[in-house]
Amino acid sequence: MADSVDSILDQWSTARPEVDVSPMGILGRLSRLTRLLEREQHTVFSRHGLQPGEFDILATLLRADTVAIGLTAGQLAESAMVTSGAITNRLDRLLAKKLITRETDPHSRRTIRVALTAKGLELIDAALLEHVANEKAMLSVMDSQQLSHLEDLLRVLLEHHEGLPQA
Predict the structure, then answer these.
(1) Which strands make up the sheet holding 108-116, listed edge to edge?
(2) Residues 6+ apart with CB under 8 A from 14
(3) Structure pTM?
(4) 12: CB partners within 8 A, 6+ apart
(5) Which of 20, 73, 87, 128 has the highest local Cβ count within 10 Å?
(6) Distance CA 133, CA 73 (A)
């Protein structure tokens, strides 16, 4: 069985046989797979009128705002691992769509809290169910043991790279 990265590795083995390009194979596959899977995810999000970043904000509010008081923009930025500027743009779009509210915290006038509206909750509930079903379908080529092994291997890589100092 061969994939699109195998032909690139074959070319390298001809052009530079003395160089071990096996890391390129792993990272090239991860990169290519990420693009393909993100395209599949985007298809689901667009059916619900959402950009991927908007889905992420709504999903974060759904899973992390357990006491229904809203989250601060800082809490959202930390959870989504993006800049505050990116969060602001996403929040502005979601506010315009009436999917969230953005209000001053009654206990701290300097804090703004973001929460789902009823329309936002309905939309993210529907999008979430379709998103999870889509992700399950994308992974269905692997059995449960393979998926567990892949998850463990990816966790090792992620834990290591998340622990490295940022440049």
Answers:
(1) 71-72, 108-116, 100-105
(2) none
(3) 0.86
(4) 19, 21, 24
(5) 87
(6) 29
Q: What whole-number distance in Å separates Cα of residue 135 and Cα of residue 132?
A: 5
Instruction: Give me 140's structure tokens.
Output: 């269905």
State the Cα–Cα distance between residues 77 and 147, nearest whole angstrom: 29
Residue 102 pairs in a beta bridge with 114
Partners of 100 in beta bridges: 116
What is the phi/psi pair of residue 20, to 5°? -80, 105
Structure tokens at 40: 């599949």
Q: Which residue has the tokens 């069985």?
A: 1
7 — pLDDT class (breaks 50, 70, 90): very high
Tokens of 97: 């769509």
| Mean pLDDT estimate for the chain | 92
At 48, list the tokens: 């619900």
Handedness of CA 74, 80, 84, 89 (dihedral sign): negative
Which residues pair with residue 101 across a beta bridge? 115
Q: Which residue has the tokens 């993210």?
A: 124
